[in-house]
Amino acid sequence: MKNIGFLSFGHWSDSPHSQTRSASDALLQAVDLAVAAEELGADGAYFRVHHFARQLASPFPLLAAIGAKTERIEIGTGVIDMRYENPMYMAEDAGAADLIAGGRLQLGISRGSPEQVIDGWRYFGYQPSEGETEADMARKHAEVLLMVLQGKGFAEPNPRPMFANPPGLLRVEPHSPGLRDRIWWGAASNGTAVWAAQQGMHLMSSTLKNDEGGAPFHVQQAEQIRAFRKAWAEAGWQREPRVSVSRSIFALTSELDHQYFGGDAGSADQIGYIDADTRAIFGRTYAAEPDVLVDQLAGDEAIAEADTLLLTVPNQLGVDYNAHVIENVLTHVAPALGWR
């Protein structure tokens, strides 16, 4: 059995070929797609966060809106770039959104990916300490967030406050119990997956990772997942770890499906560089008739290792078409693979 959700990058463009022309369109359509996905029986609605881009960037108002409009579906991010985040303010926003959603947030965070501008986090007021990298800074922000989400008091109260305080040190409010255990780390390497396990964060692994050994993408990703689970067990956490993988999967059941994605039927892994020093492997797109798709996906080792599958959706094709993409997987593919 798998938890099956969608992952949207929330692009918008004023191109005549786009059904998502503005930031308003992207946000409102994201809410509508989450509602539609819940009605179809999907398990999660996740959103990528990018700054300085025509994509979703401020997740918590969106997550809160979806939480108020839905009842069951998990709501999350994949991922929030911690280089840009004030962890105290983030804990407040996340706590409020989680309470509105009734404890359904699953927050994916990470050190982030290459951005639209050079060192964009500097414009947000952050920079690494001397001798540290931007990745170190992101992990430090993440560690503070995890500490604050535990809900323990740490701030000295004013002896003459405007409003009466509870006894003892104060914590960030609102606090949402259990949210600390629903934080995920987006890991691009085996080493960061192990670090995430040691911190007690679940693992998000996307459609790309650092090329570590030259094996096919899904094989490398499966190795990463096994390293994560081993480190989790060694760390002694008493709760069960979760792992998500992202995939572009399109069951071709209509002429429109073939028009949009039929050309991806022969897709293969690709190698590229996400920066000057990091060689990455990018996973293939799966696009085929349902019976062919079932055979192809049955051989994906990483999907077999994961408990959660996030379907990357082409959000600029509109809510109705993306709901169709999700429904195709849920009805034509998932049952044949034992995911439902």
From TrEMBL:
InterPro entries assigned:
Bact_Lucif_Oxidored (IPR050766), Luciferase-like_dom (IPR011251), Luciferase-like_sf (IPR036661)
Q: Which UniProt keywords apply?
A: Monooxygenase, Oxidoreductase
Name the GO cellular-component terms: cytosol
Luciferase-like domain location is: 9-250
Gene Ontology terms for molecular function: monooxygenase activity; oxidoreductase activity, acting on paired donors, with incorporation or reduction of molecular oxygen
> Does this UniProt record's set of keywords contain Metal-binding?
no
Listed name of the protein: Flavin-dependent oxidoreductase, luciferase family (Includes alkanesulfonate monooxygenase SsuD and methylene tetrahydromethanopterin reductase)
Source species, please?
A: Kibdelosporangium aridum
